[in-house]
């Protein structure tokens, strides 16, 4: 199947060679009679997820020759019919866009007007500079590193403000430490390190694609990979430092080592706080690691000023931190005093400079009832959890702040990615998300800037035959919608057993497991006929599988859970939804703004894809409620198109 | 300044106003109401017959009568009952009344609790009780609570007194009833723009977002076809963004909530000045007006989500209505009844709040009184007619309005129009203009008798006039209908 698609940067050789070669062949060989453009046409991979450049689909495009010839008059000495076609040629109608608009052109060709080779090269480059289609070496770090720096600075600033407030409160309540002012350097360093650790953890959501994990056992195995271990270490170190930083503002919690005339001793109070920080960090890491279907990149509902956003989020975050810090701390306190209490002895034994026996480490299990100690650790844990959550909010706030992209596909002097390139950027998810968000904004907005942007999308290329920008945007949007739609095909079986409930399913099971068991039984009934036709080995394998499936808790850990893959696909489909909505807005706006009618030609291609997506989402509405919301979203996009073009006979499908 | 006293007299006091054609208000005998004899403009509109249950006043007995006799029980048992029935407040009351030992501690504790409750009530949500009692009284009085026209198709949603929303549509006998156990005390309904079948219903238990499947001919859509937002909040008003992407909700707290129903996520925006009574999104999507229960009005700018605070001198602002281009918003004030205009002009002389019409109480003859407390206001999409209804007034006042573009903004002018009156003993309870009425303007009026009336305002020139106005962006003046 041929799909209209712009090539990916990695698919092409450097354009200069191809262009040069083509120009040479132009100069030597007689010009072709009928040129049918195939550029840039692509073949989709069998699963539809990847687009591959065909052998004859090099960027030495015939459109380029056509347009050049038309401008320069370089063609056959006789009058010939030349079809000016474009990359929109592979449309279902089988006719090119220019054919539909302009029809065939008759050109008078004069061999005396042959241009020079250099002029031809210059002309071609002027028309189709290859900036979009080759790897232009744009530094993608520019899209996240300045934002991360600002986020880091903000995070350190927020931590310092919290620290100062905490210190003031401690001084007012006469529990503040009387340490030297030089300790401030240590606090700032600790804040810097912890902020760097936490922000680098959350940065991964934006610069790396999440790994698809299908079962909890896989997630367990993934714990032992290098990135996971590094993340664990970062969480632990970051949270320990934050805990220490806050605890050090209180009396007798200054440092891990106590100095006295008789020697150096381990400050067990401080060790207790630092270990609680490490424990909280570990818990937060595990929570994040095993929540592998959650949405990583999520734009805020409304775009506010960063200070207001932070101010609005701070209070509910603090409330959640107060609630969520209590239970882990109770477990930690019990564990520390009854199980891991000897760790202080171990530290002293292994240390070469700490005195072996001190009063500080002689504390026993009855310290469990030390209320002051518990309150201090609880307060530090709250502030630690609060700081971690704030780090996530701040990183998201800065990295997802809106960014503008240029629409010009062939601007030679463009240093940054144009919109189409950004929409296709597969290396950095952040850039792609920002691009779709920007497209969504400019397609729906009614201000002058957005209108001028849309005017550029709807305009034709300099030769006046191809709406390059619209084609690029349309293809980019349709590509991601198709990908999402085809991924939903794999999950259509999930919706079949929903709503059925057999009486023999154990009522005590969680509803998720009960539904899962019900669906499996439903599927097994369907396989009864096939089972009879199976061979012995095949039948044995099947029975073993069935045996495992009868044990839901085992399946809970080891089963390849289809729901997880489905949830993962649904949670990360925001770009596809933006694409559908943007297309609908562009089509609706084209009624007044598209003076060449370029959008109208593609309606019959876009609408069936959106309808298909809506139906697939609707079929899965019982599996995940968000499917229902998304199907309504797509339906609203279709309604928008229908209201703009009421004569498209869509009403019966809506 | 325009006032109700300048309105023309009612020509036929015994008749019922049925429509306005070419600037002439048409009257008919209340016993033989047939709109078709005057105009065919609304013949294809759905015929609305409210279910009988909604028209009957609920009779709630205040006492259980003599069926149940009191039983003597010990103080401890009564404390136990009070704890399960009414909580700590009732226990303290009981101790204050009957205990000798704990009398004074219970009394002082009760006083302390009451003062804290009052402080919270009148600082966080002032006039909460007043709003609740007003809403409750209104609801008890009229069979129709509110109505809403669909923005894209000929479909109207009617919320009736028994907490049911009924959908009437053209050429269809299928009338879905939207009812849910927790959908009590409906305050507002609003269709989602850009959608064919989604309706937001604000009530005392939050907001129900119904998705009506028109292919499913079940008259009572299942509870699974709705989503419940802002659970547990007494939502007083809802308004959709023009594209239908966001739903803004007002409640009696200090926060206004912006929902994104596609992602089921929300953001709270803080409003000082007490609970919010009404909220409305401008048609261009750039602003939101939030009228609080006090004299504070906030205008939110949706580009940066910052707000401007305004204080009205005439008391609480009610029923904000926007012009089609979002440059003018009108609202009524409660204590000193007048119609105010908020103009968002670049010209500083034109911008700001101005009183444009006096809505003070006025008498017409011996039978008719109009003015005072505004209970409903609507502006037609072409910004030519503004209809207002008042508490305890049998008349609907229709003003002629005009917004014309100027170099630095808009000029707004308002003139007295005409009165619409119903049958004897009928009071208007809800009004709304149809959104996509091509022939002119169609005012839909709900009367206290349960009758829903279409009041078309059309002319022979209306077709050409309105079709040309759509192209030019604003509507031209009528030669026969409007004095402008």
TrEMBL record, chain A:
Its main location: nucleus. It is a multi-pass membrane protein. It is found in: Nucleus membrane; Nucleus, Nuclear pore complex. It comes from the Eukaryota. The chain crosses the membrane at residues 152-175, 181-203, 224-250, 374-395. InterPro entries: Nucleoporin_prot_Ndc1/Nup. Keywords: Membrane, mRNA transport, Nuclear pore complex, Nucleus, Protein transport, Translocation, Transmembrane, Transmembrane helix, Transport. Belongs to the NDC1 family. This is Biological_process. It comes from Nesidiocoris tenuis.
UniProtKB/TrEMBL annotation, chain B:
InterPro entries: Aladin, Beta-prop_Aladin, WD40/YVTN_repeat-like_dom_sf, WD40_rpt. Residues 475-484 have a biased composition (Polar residues). WD repeats lie at residues 269-304. The keyword Membrane does not apply. Residues 463-472 have a biased composition (Low complexity). Residues 139-458 form the Aladin seven-bladed propeller domain. SMART domains: WD40. Keywords: WD repeat. Residues 463-484 are annotated as: Disordered. It comes from the Eukaryota. Gene3D superfamilies: YVTN repeat-like/Quinoprotein amine dehydrogenase. Pfam families: Beta-prop_Aladin (PF25460). PANTHER family: ALADIN, ALADIN/ADRACALIN/AAAS. This is WD domain, G-beta repeat. It comes from Nesidiocoris tenuis.
